[in-house]
Design a protein that fits this description.
Elements lengths: L4 H8 L7 H18 L3 H7 L5 H8 L17 H14 L1 H21 L2 H12 L5 E4 L15 E5 L2 E12 L6 E9 L10 E9 L5 E5 L11 E11 L12 H35 L1 E2 L2 E2 L4 H29 L5 H26 L10 H13 L4 H13 L5
Amino acid sequence: MTATAPRIDTVFDLDALLTEEEREWQQRARRFAQERIAPVIEEDFEAKHFRREFVRELGELGFLGMHLEGYGCAGAGAVSYGLVCLELEAADSGWRTFVSVQGSLAMSAIHKYGSEEQKQRWLPGMAAGELIGCFALTEPQGGSDPAAMTTTARRDGDGWVLDGAKRWIGLASLADVAVVWARVDDPTGAHGDGGSAVRGFLVPTSTPGFTATPIDGKLSMRASVQCDVTLEGVRLDADALLPGASGLSGPFGCLNEARYGIVWGAMGAARACLEAALERATTREVFGRPIGANQLIQAKLADMFVEVEKGILLALHLGRLKERGALTPPQISAGKLNSVREALAIAHEARAILAGDGITNAWPVMRHAANLESVRTYEGTDEIHQLVLGRALTGLNAF
Protein backbone atom coordinates (compact mmCIF):
# COMPACT_ATOMS: atom_id res chain seq x y z
CA MET A 1 0.00 0.00 0.00
CA THR A 2 1.10 3.59 -0.52
CA ALA A 3 0.95 6.33 2.08
CA THR A 4 -2.05 8.64 1.89
CA ALA A 5 -1.17 10.75 4.92
CA PRO A 6 -0.52 13.93 2.89
CA ARG A 7 -4.19 14.01 1.84
CA ILE A 8 -5.33 13.62 5.44
CA ASP A 9 -2.75 16.14 6.63
CA THR A 10 -3.96 18.70 4.06
CA VAL A 11 -7.58 18.46 5.20
CA PHE A 12 -6.58 18.57 8.87
CA ASP A 13 -3.68 21.08 8.59
CA LEU A 14 -2.14 20.13 11.95
CA ASP A 15 1.09 21.87 10.92
CA ALA A 16 -0.57 25.24 11.41
CA LEU A 17 -0.82 24.50 15.14
CA LEU A 18 2.80 23.36 15.60
CA THR A 19 6.14 25.07 15.97
CA GLU A 20 8.94 24.46 13.50
CA GLU A 21 10.80 22.38 16.11
CA GLU A 22 7.73 20.23 16.73
CA ARG A 23 7.29 19.63 13.00
CA GLU A 24 10.94 18.61 12.74
CA TRP A 25 10.56 16.03 15.51
CA GLN A 26 7.43 14.67 13.83
CA GLN A 27 9.04 14.39 10.41
CA ARG A 28 12.12 12.70 11.88
CA ALA A 29 9.90 10.09 13.54
CA ARG A 30 7.76 9.65 10.42
CA ARG A 31 10.84 8.97 8.29
CA PHE A 32 12.11 6.35 10.73
CA ALA A 33 8.70 4.73 10.96
CA GLN A 34 8.20 4.59 7.20
CA GLU A 35 11.76 3.74 6.16
CA ARG A 36 12.86 1.39 8.95
CA ILE A 37 9.83 -0.09 10.71
CA ALA A 38 7.18 -0.29 8.00
CA PRO A 39 9.15 -2.47 5.53
CA VAL A 40 9.72 -5.23 8.12
CA ILE A 41 6.91 -4.98 10.64
CA GLU A 42 4.54 -7.53 9.09
CA GLU A 43 7.36 -10.08 8.97
CA ASP A 44 8.40 -9.25 12.54
CA PHE A 45 4.83 -9.47 13.81
CA GLU A 46 4.42 -12.89 12.21
CA ALA A 47 7.80 -14.13 13.51
CA LYS A 48 7.38 -12.61 16.99
CA HIS A 49 10.66 -10.78 16.43
CA PHE A 50 11.90 -7.66 18.24
CA ARG A 51 14.61 -5.83 16.30
CA ARG A 52 17.03 -4.85 19.01
CA GLU A 53 19.23 -3.11 16.43
CA PHE A 54 16.58 -0.39 16.19
CA VAL A 55 17.17 0.59 19.82
CA ARG A 56 20.46 2.39 19.18
CA GLU A 57 18.97 4.06 16.13
CA LEU A 58 16.13 5.42 18.26
CA GLY A 59 18.73 6.68 20.71
CA GLU A 60 20.72 8.37 17.96
CA LEU A 61 17.56 10.13 16.80
CA GLY A 62 17.01 11.46 20.33
CA PHE A 63 13.70 9.68 20.95
CA LEU A 64 14.63 7.87 24.19
CA GLY A 65 13.73 9.89 27.26
CA MET A 66 13.39 12.85 24.90
CA HIS A 67 11.13 14.76 27.28
CA LEU A 68 13.75 14.69 30.07
CA GLU A 69 16.45 17.28 30.73
CA GLY A 70 20.15 16.53 30.99
CA TYR A 71 22.06 13.22 31.09
CA GLY A 72 22.13 12.98 27.31
CA CYS A 73 18.36 13.48 26.95
CA ALA A 74 16.96 15.85 24.33
CA GLY A 75 14.87 18.02 26.66
CA ALA A 76 12.12 18.27 24.04
CA GLY A 77 8.66 19.64 24.71
CA ALA A 78 5.62 17.53 25.54
CA VAL A 79 4.01 18.10 22.14
CA SER A 80 7.19 17.08 20.31
CA TYR A 81 7.29 13.87 22.34
CA GLY A 82 3.63 13.22 21.60
CA LEU A 83 4.14 13.65 17.88
CA VAL A 84 6.99 11.14 17.95
CA CYS A 85 4.69 8.68 19.73
CA LEU A 86 2.01 9.26 17.10
CA GLU A 87 4.34 8.56 14.18
CA LEU A 88 5.94 5.48 15.75
CA GLU A 89 2.58 3.94 16.59
CA ALA A 90 1.36 4.64 13.07
CA ALA A 91 3.93 1.98 12.12
CA ASP A 92 3.33 -0.33 15.09
CA SER A 93 2.19 -0.01 18.69
CA GLY A 94 5.12 -2.14 19.82
CA TRP A 95 7.69 0.50 18.91
CA ARG A 96 5.81 3.32 20.59
CA THR A 97 5.52 0.98 23.57
CA PHE A 98 9.28 0.50 23.59
CA VAL A 99 9.86 4.26 23.65
CA SER A 100 7.28 4.59 26.44
CA VAL A 101 8.75 1.82 28.60
CA GLN A 102 12.30 3.05 28.14
CA GLY A 103 11.66 6.78 28.43
CA SER A 104 8.34 7.45 30.15
CA LEU A 105 8.60 4.62 32.68
CA ALA A 106 12.14 3.42 33.41
CA MET A 107 14.06 6.62 32.61
CA SER A 108 11.41 8.87 34.15
CA ALA A 109 11.53 6.86 37.38
CA ILE A 110 15.29 7.33 37.63
CA HIS A 111 15.11 10.97 36.57
CA LYS A 112 12.26 11.83 38.98
CA TYR A 113 13.26 9.78 42.00
CA GLY A 114 16.87 8.69 41.64
CA SER A 115 20.03 9.95 43.31
CA GLU A 116 22.58 11.86 41.27
CA GLU A 117 24.78 8.78 41.23
CA GLN A 118 21.93 6.63 39.92
CA LYS A 119 21.13 9.17 37.21
CA GLN A 120 24.74 9.38 36.09
CA ARG A 121 25.10 5.61 36.05
CA TRP A 122 22.05 4.76 33.98
CA LEU A 123 20.47 7.67 32.11
CA PRO A 124 23.16 8.56 29.53
CA GLY A 125 23.41 4.97 28.32
CA MET A 126 19.65 4.59 28.21
CA ALA A 127 19.23 7.83 26.27
CA ALA A 128 21.77 6.59 23.73
CA GLY A 129 20.09 3.21 23.38
CA GLU A 130 23.16 1.48 24.76
CA LEU A 131 21.24 0.28 27.82
CA ILE A 132 17.65 -0.90 28.09
CA GLY A 133 15.40 -0.46 31.12
CA CYS A 134 12.12 -1.97 32.23
CA PHE A 135 9.47 -1.01 34.79
CA ALA A 136 8.25 -3.84 37.02
CA LEU A 137 5.01 -2.83 38.73
CA THR A 138 2.16 -5.10 37.57
CA GLU A 139 1.76 -8.43 39.35
CA PRO A 140 0.03 -11.65 38.29
CA GLN A 141 -2.93 -10.99 40.59
CA GLY A 142 -2.51 -7.22 40.92
CA GLY A 143 -3.48 -5.84 37.53
CA SER A 144 -5.40 -2.66 38.16
CA ASP A 145 -4.84 -2.80 41.92
CA PRO A 146 -1.17 -2.03 42.65
CA ALA A 147 -2.10 -1.37 46.28
CA ALA A 148 -2.45 -5.16 46.59
CA MET A 149 1.23 -5.60 45.75
CA THR A 150 2.80 -8.71 47.26
CA THR A 151 6.41 -8.26 46.12
CA THR A 152 8.46 -7.40 49.22
CA ALA A 153 11.76 -5.79 50.05
CA ARG A 154 13.28 -6.47 53.45
CA ARG A 155 16.34 -5.06 55.12
CA ASP A 156 19.32 -7.38 55.31
CA GLY A 157 22.28 -5.73 56.99
CA ASP A 158 23.16 -2.66 54.96
CA GLY A 159 21.25 -3.87 51.91
CA TRP A 160 17.94 -5.24 50.72
CA VAL A 161 16.45 -8.58 49.67
CA LEU A 162 13.58 -8.66 47.17
CA ASP A 163 11.10 -11.50 46.69
CA GLY A 164 8.02 -11.67 44.51
CA ALA A 165 6.64 -11.89 41.00
CA LYS A 166 5.68 -9.44 38.27
CA ARG A 167 3.79 -9.98 35.01
CA TRP A 168 3.45 -8.23 31.64
CA ILE A 169 6.72 -6.39 32.13
CA GLY A 170 7.82 -4.90 28.83
CA LEU A 171 11.45 -5.48 27.76
CA ALA A 172 12.38 -7.36 30.95
CA SER A 173 14.27 -10.15 29.19
CA LEU A 174 16.25 -7.57 27.17
CA ALA A 175 16.80 -5.03 29.92
CA ASP A 176 20.02 -4.12 31.66
CA VAL A 177 18.21 -2.59 34.62
CA ALA A 178 14.74 -3.08 36.09
CA VAL A 179 12.87 -0.50 38.13
CA VAL A 180 11.16 -2.84 40.60
CA TRP A 181 8.42 -1.65 42.92
CA ALA A 182 8.12 -3.55 46.20
CA ARG A 183 6.44 -3.24 49.56
CA VAL A 184 8.73 -2.41 52.49
CA ASP A 185 7.66 -3.11 56.06
CA ASP A 186 6.85 0.12 57.89
CA PRO A 187 5.46 -0.76 61.33
CA THR A 188 4.96 2.88 62.31
CA GLY A 189 2.80 3.60 59.28
CA ALA A 190 4.86 6.75 58.81
CA HIS A 191 4.41 6.58 55.06
CA GLY A 192 0.63 6.57 55.30
CA ASP A 193 0.49 3.34 53.35
CA GLY A 194 -1.31 1.04 55.77
CA GLY A 195 1.77 -0.03 57.71
CA SER A 196 3.99 -0.50 54.68
CA ALA A 197 5.37 1.67 51.92
CA VAL A 198 5.85 0.96 48.24
CA ARG A 199 9.41 1.80 47.24
CA GLY A 200 11.33 1.62 43.99
CA PHE A 201 14.60 -0.28 43.49
CA LEU A 202 17.09 -0.32 40.63
CA VAL A 203 17.88 -3.97 39.96
CA PRO A 204 20.60 -4.85 37.44
CA THR A 205 19.05 -7.77 35.58
CA SER A 206 22.26 -9.77 35.97
CA THR A 207 21.63 -9.92 39.74
CA PRO A 208 21.23 -13.53 40.97
CA GLY A 209 17.60 -14.38 41.62
CA PHE A 210 16.20 -12.07 38.91
CA THR A 211 14.57 -14.06 36.09
CA ALA A 212 12.62 -12.70 33.13
CA THR A 213 10.72 -15.08 30.86
CA PRO A 214 9.07 -13.79 27.65
CA ILE A 215 5.34 -14.47 27.50
CA ASP A 216 4.47 -16.61 24.49
CA GLY A 217 1.15 -17.22 22.78
CA LYS A 218 0.39 -13.52 22.30
CA LEU A 219 -1.96 -12.57 19.49
CA SER A 220 -1.15 -8.89 20.05
CA MET A 221 2.11 -6.94 20.34
CA ARG A 222 3.94 -9.80 18.64
CA ALA A 223 6.86 -7.61 17.52
CA SER A 224 7.36 -6.52 21.12
CA VAL A 225 8.51 -8.30 24.29
CA GLN A 226 6.53 -8.68 27.53
CA CYS A 227 7.67 -10.95 30.34
CA ASP A 228 6.96 -12.73 33.56
CA VAL A 229 9.53 -11.72 36.18
CA THR A 230 10.43 -13.62 39.33
CA LEU A 231 12.51 -12.25 42.18
CA GLU A 232 13.91 -14.92 44.47
CA GLY A 233 16.19 -13.64 47.20
CA VAL A 234 17.48 -10.79 45.02
CA ARG A 235 20.18 -9.10 47.12
CA LEU A 236 20.86 -5.43 46.51
CA ASP A 237 23.15 -2.84 48.02
CA ALA A 238 21.63 0.01 49.97
CA ASP A 239 22.15 2.40 47.06
CA ALA A 240 19.70 0.42 44.89
CA LEU A 241 16.79 2.22 46.56
CA LEU A 242 15.27 5.16 44.66
CA PRO A 243 15.44 7.80 47.40
CA GLY A 244 12.81 10.16 46.01
CA ALA A 245 9.82 7.81 45.80
CA SER A 246 7.68 6.51 48.65
CA GLY A 247 4.17 5.19 48.29
CA LEU A 248 2.13 4.59 45.16
CA SER A 249 2.56 8.19 44.05
CA GLY A 250 5.99 7.09 42.84
CA PRO A 251 4.94 4.59 40.16
CA PHE A 252 1.78 6.57 39.38
CA GLY A 253 3.92 9.59 38.51
CA CYS A 254 5.63 7.47 35.85
CA LEU A 255 2.43 5.81 34.63
CA ASN A 256 0.95 9.21 33.87
CA GLU A 257 3.95 9.98 31.67
CA ALA A 258 3.31 6.78 29.71
CA ARG A 259 -0.44 7.37 29.53
CA TYR A 260 0.21 10.77 28.02
CA GLY A 261 2.23 9.15 25.22
CA ILE A 262 -0.61 6.71 24.56
CA VAL A 263 -3.04 9.60 24.02
CA TRP A 264 -0.97 10.55 20.98
CA GLY A 265 0.20 7.09 19.97
CA ALA A 266 -3.22 5.50 19.63
CA MET A 267 -4.16 8.25 17.20
CA GLY A 268 -1.19 7.22 15.08
CA ALA A 269 -2.59 3.70 14.79
CA ALA A 270 -6.01 5.19 14.01
CA ARG A 271 -4.54 7.40 11.30
CA ALA A 272 -2.79 4.43 9.71
CA CYS A 273 -6.08 2.51 9.59
CA LEU A 274 -7.86 5.48 8.05
CA GLU A 275 -5.08 5.79 5.44
CA ALA A 276 -5.52 2.13 4.52
CA ALA A 277 -9.29 2.52 4.21
CA LEU A 278 -8.91 5.66 2.13
CA GLU A 279 -6.47 4.01 -0.27
CA ARG A 280 -8.75 1.01 -0.65
CA ALA A 281 -11.79 3.21 -1.19
CA THR A 282 -10.13 5.12 -4.01
CA THR A 283 -8.50 2.18 -5.80
CA ARG A 284 -10.90 -0.77 -5.54
CA GLU A 285 -13.67 -0.70 -8.14
CA VAL A 286 -17.02 -2.43 -7.73
CA PHE A 287 -19.98 -1.98 -10.07
CA GLY A 288 -17.81 0.04 -12.41
CA ARG A 289 -16.48 2.71 -10.06
CA PRO A 290 -14.30 3.12 -6.93
CA ILE A 291 -16.12 2.10 -3.78
CA GLY A 292 -15.21 5.52 -2.34
CA ALA A 293 -17.69 7.06 -4.78
CA ASN A 294 -20.54 5.53 -2.76
CA GLN A 295 -22.23 7.59 -0.09
CA LEU A 296 -22.03 4.93 2.61
CA ILE A 297 -18.26 4.59 2.22
CA GLN A 298 -17.73 8.34 2.21
CA ALA A 299 -19.83 8.65 5.37
CA LYS A 300 -17.65 6.04 7.09
CA LEU A 301 -14.44 7.77 5.98
CA ALA A 302 -15.74 11.15 7.15
CA ASP A 303 -16.69 9.81 10.57
CA MET A 304 -13.30 8.11 10.96
CA PHE A 305 -11.49 11.29 9.96
CA VAL A 306 -13.47 13.41 12.42
CA GLU A 307 -12.54 11.10 15.30
CA VAL A 308 -8.85 11.15 14.32
CA GLU A 309 -8.94 14.93 14.13
CA LYS A 310 -10.73 15.27 17.48
CA GLY A 311 -8.35 12.81 19.13
CA ILE A 312 -5.24 14.63 17.91
CA LEU A 313 -6.67 18.00 18.92
CA LEU A 314 -7.36 16.63 22.41
CA ALA A 315 -3.80 15.26 22.56
CA LEU A 316 -2.45 18.64 21.48
CA HIS A 317 -4.51 20.41 24.16
CA LEU A 318 -3.18 18.03 26.81
CA GLY A 319 0.36 18.57 25.52
CA ARG A 320 0.07 22.32 25.85
CA LEU A 321 -1.29 21.86 29.39
CA LYS A 322 1.64 19.57 30.19
CA GLU A 323 4.13 22.11 28.93
CA ARG A 324 2.60 24.68 31.31
CA GLY A 325 2.71 22.22 34.21
CA ALA A 326 -1.08 22.25 34.41
CA LEU A 327 -1.97 18.73 33.24
CA THR A 328 -3.99 16.68 35.77
CA PRO A 329 -4.47 12.90 36.10
CA PRO A 330 -8.20 13.08 35.19
CA GLN A 331 -7.31 14.96 32.01
CA ILE A 332 -4.81 12.25 31.11
CA SER A 333 -7.48 9.61 31.80
CA ALA A 334 -9.89 11.41 29.45
CA GLY A 335 -7.28 11.40 26.72
CA LYS A 336 -6.24 7.77 27.15
CA LEU A 337 -9.82 6.55 27.31
CA ASN A 338 -10.89 8.50 24.23
CA SER A 339 -7.87 7.84 22.04
CA VAL A 340 -7.75 4.07 22.47
CA ARG A 341 -11.50 3.57 22.35
CA GLU A 342 -11.86 5.60 19.15
CA ALA A 343 -8.74 4.08 17.57
CA LEU A 344 -10.22 0.60 18.01
CA ALA A 345 -13.53 1.69 16.51
CA ILE A 346 -11.68 3.18 13.52
CA ALA A 347 -9.64 -0.01 13.06
CA HIS A 348 -12.83 -2.07 12.99
CA GLU A 349 -14.52 0.27 10.51
CA ALA A 350 -11.45 0.29 8.30
CA ARG A 351 -11.41 -3.52 8.28
CA ALA A 352 -14.99 -3.51 7.04
CA ILE A 353 -14.11 -1.15 4.17
CA LEU A 354 -11.19 -3.39 3.21
CA ALA A 355 -13.62 -6.35 3.08
CA GLY A 356 -12.03 -9.80 3.01
CA ASP A 357 -8.56 -8.48 2.24
CA GLY A 358 -8.67 -6.56 5.51
CA ILE A 359 -7.93 -9.71 7.48
CA THR A 360 -4.65 -10.28 5.63
CA ASN A 361 -1.25 -8.77 6.35
CA ALA A 362 -1.32 -7.04 2.99
CA TRP A 363 -2.88 -4.26 5.03
CA PRO A 364 -1.91 -3.15 8.57
CA VAL A 365 -5.42 -2.88 9.97
CA MET A 366 -5.83 -6.23 11.74
CA ARG A 367 -2.36 -5.88 13.25
CA HIS A 368 -3.25 -2.43 14.58
CA ALA A 369 -6.58 -3.71 15.92
CA ALA A 370 -4.85 -6.57 17.71
CA ASN A 371 -2.19 -4.29 19.17
CA LEU A 372 -4.75 -1.75 20.31
CA GLU A 373 -6.44 -4.42 22.42
CA SER A 374 -3.23 -4.47 24.48
CA VAL A 375 -2.98 -0.69 24.55
CA ARG A 376 -6.56 -0.61 25.78
CA THR A 377 -5.57 -2.77 28.75
CA TYR A 378 -2.18 -1.52 29.85
CA GLU A 379 -1.58 1.72 31.75
CA GLY A 380 -5.16 1.50 33.00
CA THR A 381 -8.16 -0.22 31.42
CA ASP A 382 -11.15 1.71 30.09
CA GLU A 383 -12.96 0.99 33.34
CA ILE A 384 -10.16 2.38 35.51
CA HIS A 385 -10.08 5.62 33.54
CA GLN A 386 -13.86 5.87 33.65
CA LEU A 387 -13.67 5.60 37.44
CA VAL A 388 -10.93 8.23 37.62
CA LEU A 389 -13.17 10.58 35.65
CA GLY A 390 -16.24 9.61 37.65
CA ARG A 391 -14.45 10.47 40.88
CA ALA A 392 -13.35 13.83 39.44
CA LEU A 393 -16.91 14.62 38.36
CA THR A 394 -18.78 13.49 41.49
CA GLY A 395 -16.20 13.74 44.25
CA LEU A 396 -17.11 10.14 45.17
CA ASN A 397 -14.65 7.26 45.05
CA ALA A 398 -16.11 4.15 43.39
CA PHE A 399 -12.89 2.11 43.33
